[in-house]
Amino acid sequence: MAGIPKLPGYSFTDPTKQKFHVSQTFNIRNGYRIARNNFCGIGGTEIASNSARFVGANDCIRFDPSLTYGRTKTDVPPLFKPHYALYANRNLSFDGFFKQGILDSPNEFYRVRRVRILYYLEDDTISVFEPPLRNSGINQGRIVKRGRVPKNEKGDHWHWKDLNVGLDIMLYGIVYHTVNCDKWTREYMASQGLIMNEPEEMPEDPYIFDRQIKAKSNFTKTKSNVDKLRKFLEYDGKVLRFKAVWDDRENEYGELMRFEIFYFLSDDTVSVKEIHRKNDGRDPYCMLLRKVKLPKRYNDTPPSYPAIYLELTPAEVTEYYQPINFQIGETIFVLGRDMLLYDCDKFTRDYFQKALGITQKEAFSIEDPVPPKPPKPMPPHDGFGSLEDSFQNTKTFIIKPYRKNFTMSTVNANKYLKYEMVMDAVHPEDTIRRFVMMYSLGDGTCKIREPPIKNSGIMGGTYLRPTMLIKPGSERLNPDYYTPVDFYIGAMISIFKQRFIIVGADLYVYRYMMANNDKFPPEIIENLRNYMFNKGYLKYDVDDKMKEIVESENKWDEDADQEHLKTVEEELKECHDKINVQSDPIADKAMRDKIYAEYEDAMKHKTGVLPYGIKPYGHECANPVFIGDKKSSVCKPDEEVQFSSFTPKHVDTPEEIRAKFYGGVLKGHHDVCDGSKTIECIPPPHLGPLPEREGGPVPEPIMTTDPELPASCKTKTVRFVEDSGDRCKKDRHDLCNVNRDISFAGCTDYQKECIQLDKH
């Protein structure tokens, strides 16, 4: 059957094969999955690997001895547990290390790395872990992944019987040396008949040990006395600004680059900013140095310092730049660049002057002297058009008209200076000719006109159209033109090789010179003034000048009289000071106001509510009261007498006497309400209508006339002016009990008399 080809019609099916499923390779015993050693193929056929040809030398152990020697009666075996379930989560732990070689390092030649080797008993696998070491700088954790590790080239694997303390174990090319194991590992190995060696000492890593020694140094640093918070609060926002330049032209493609250096006083840091110019071709990164402390010698570090990947720390820097190191004209080094300071701002100069007592030098230029450009040659004038138009056309390719001064033309439009001229005649018939020259202030042109002369054959008219007159002897391409400074009486001017003499001028010319005297020399102004005076054109000016002189003299006399009166008053004041007489008008007025205020205050009650509705003294009296003392008319300088210009008198009226009586009651009220004193409240008497005054003469107001005194003794009188307004206020309450009846009072008899006088 095996030799028949597998073609249609040549295949046969075994009718005894009824099951074609894949046979099971595992059995379940006591709840655990166990692999089967003997199993059949698909359809129940025997597997070729179970035949006798595949039986090895040790396959005899598969046979049960009981088949040969018979079964013996034994104890009941324990419940079955497979090997991986019996030793699940049980492993052997060994502490060890391996040495790792270090290249290109002057501080260490090798490194000791501690590891932990775990052997898992359930499946005979091994894994290696490295415990974490703080700040080691290397990757830590799992070194060898869990798995069966080959022992040699024959294919053998490491077994727990091969492990012990003090043994070198090679795992994937790395030799691990075990120095110790845990307690459970020792007990388990002892139960299996293997005694572990004594533990060894774990070697120290030289680099880690040296770093720990340095970390435990007994040397301390003295704390700085600088109060950083106070310094920040005092100097926050205050920055010293310097302008610097770095000359890199010694190198290829180098150039002169400008920088701005900022020194922050709050924390002594420095930042450097590059100043870019338009189209300089440099990258737009302006900050050359961020805000850091700038060391004076940045390369002053030990040879062992790894400057490639570590920045400088305060431990490596010996000295930093301070404000005193930044001075104009000095050179500072910014990380290898020597920068020259050439300017600073005003705040920086003030800070150095006030805080450090140093005066910064003046700023200097760093630009190379630029050779002057050669003047552009002017082509010769071809005679067409004016010289200004021709010169304008040589500046640009596009022809543009000459641009005049629009402002001067607008301000001085239609303003002309007129002069009278005569011709410096060569022929006798030209001596009678007269010319009028008009100089235009708007565009600087001169127009000459000749008036006609009857019966002379001279028709007159325009002699020269408006033209800018060129001075003789000036350059042809850069001519000098005549200006009003060149025109004065007697001046000789040359106009197209014809000489004229100025013999007269208009009055407006003189006015213009006086209004713009800074544009003309004094000699020319004096020349025109003499001419105008001789002609009689300055008559009104002379009259105004004489009037001004007379007013000035009168004012001087008045000032002299005022000064004399002031001297007399000062002498009189000195006399009064010697005899202690107060005669200062300002002080007298202040004293009068003070006495008047005191008198008015005495006439008024201290509270807003009058006691028992008493009507105060009325001041609406038409006849004022004058109060004052008669002073002695003789000044006695020999006697020390205390004089006073004010001695006011006060006469109590009946209403004031009654007011004083109730004033005592009011004082008792204040003692009760405002103080701790208690008084007995007495009910007030019933106040009916005021009785009529008995018949008799009506008292007149008190009048005091001014004494007749000489002028030498100054006497002051005080007049108390009455206030306006209604003083008859009737909303007065009782003092002790506000619930009592309120009594009202009308105007007093004295006030009624005043009202009657007012009516008359």
Automatic annotation (TrEMBL):
InterPro entries: DM10_dom (IPR006602), EFHC1/EFHC2/EFHB (IPR040193). Transmembrane segments: none annotated. Keywords: Cell projection, Cytoplasm, Cytoskeleton, Repeat. GO terms for biological process: cilium-dependent cell motility; mitotic cytokinesis; mitotic spindle organization. It is found in: Cytoplasm, Cytoskeleton, Cilium axoneme. One of its GO terms (molecular function) is alpha-tubulin binding. Gene3D superfamilies: 2.30.29.170. Residues 88-193, 236-356, 413-517 form the DM10 domain. One of its GO terms (cellular component) is axoneme. Coiled coil: none annotated. Pfam families: DM10_dom. The keyword Acetylation does not apply. This is DM10 domain-containing protein. It comes from Psylliodes chrysocephalus. The lineage of its organism: Eukaryota, Metazoa, Ecdysozoa, Arthropoda, Hexapoda.
